[in-house]
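Data card: per-record layout.
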Amino acid sequence: MQSSPSPNILGITPIFVFVGLIIFAGVATSDITAMPVLVGFMLAAGFALLLQPKGQTLSISEKVQLFCQGGGNSNIILLVIIFLMAGAFYSLTIDIGARDATVNLALSWVPQSLLLPGLFIICCFISFAMGTSMGTITALSPIGVGLAESLGLSSHLLMGVVISGAMFGDNLSFVSDTTIAATRSQNVRLTDKFKANLLVVTPAAIITAALLFFVDTGTPPPLNEESYTLINVLPFIVIVGCALTGMNVVLVLASGIGSAALVGLVNGSFDVFGLFASIQTGMGWMQNLALIAITIGGIVALMTAYGGIAWLIKLLTRRVKSKRGAEFSIASLVGFLDLTTANNTIAIVTAGPIAKNLGDEYSADPRRVASLLDIFSCACQGMVPYSPQLLTAAAIAGISPLSITAYCWYPMMLLVFGIISVATGWPAFKKPMQSGL
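The structure for this 437-residue chain is written out next.
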């Protein structure tokens, strides 16, 4: 197969088949969550196997091989490992009482009116320090679920709060892979991209926190004394502490699982075999999510091989005639790439060289280009119901990822202010760029 497939509009259609199935099922049943996500993607994968690259004919065996290579990509397998470990950690925290203890501790110390904006700000801080939205979501989603149950609030809302805070750091952090990818692709310094991003994301974060402040959280329930046993809170202290040191997310989860296992054995929540059973239960919760991730990887590989991604790039860049047009095309390109790949880092890496060429041709400031790549990829990533972030939160909460999207208020605000930034040319840099990262 040729390394650079010819642009082909049919190559992008599998993702539209998936979206069409979701919409059709939602309209037919008046329930947008009626179509199971995995079934939808499997049907889209079946459709993808019927297609062909332009000017070529691949056998079904060759297409299945391409699908398997995409599903077995190292990034996909890493996601599967993270999903399974996150499930194990969540199950253990429930069985040892860690989740309930942490929630009740928060209810006793944080004013009721500040619980939701407080959770959002905590997620923002942790994700900024960690540089990973996935680590934040796996660490704090159990607490969000516990708060929802304790306060009688919608778990969809609480998961939206966690995802919102997680995407804040994913976009802004100095150590985020999206930040690194965006700055390297445009050859700009991390601090310059940070300054451009900060002016756009700050109003989005403030509005999100203000909206959460006005959500009625009711009256706190009575608390039991045993809920304050601090040893039960230890797993969350360990996992957050390890994350803030910049430790790899797999090691962070391993530390959390180890500490939760130790606490459970010490306080008699289970014996060794009960520990193993709890871990197995949690991993079982994530099996569906792991299959979704593998299926998405396979579909993306087929769309790339068919020329669908190449067609999308050509479509969004062919009518650029001005600097503002170049910036809108860059924003649209990275956003659509994120919608098709469900991976904001891959979207940035793919769009980066095209964005660099467009920016140079139309005199767009590379610092703004790097900022736009990160802003629009993270905004879309935080709203796509089949992104790893929403799938993970949904699996932990036991709800549909489609039902969380409406509560991802920060990514929505980020998208709005990103569009305003492109339309107005704000923020603008007065001083010339210094080379180097």
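Known properties of this structure: Residues 74-176+192-287 form one domain. The first helix runs from residue 13 to 29.

See the next section for split statistics.
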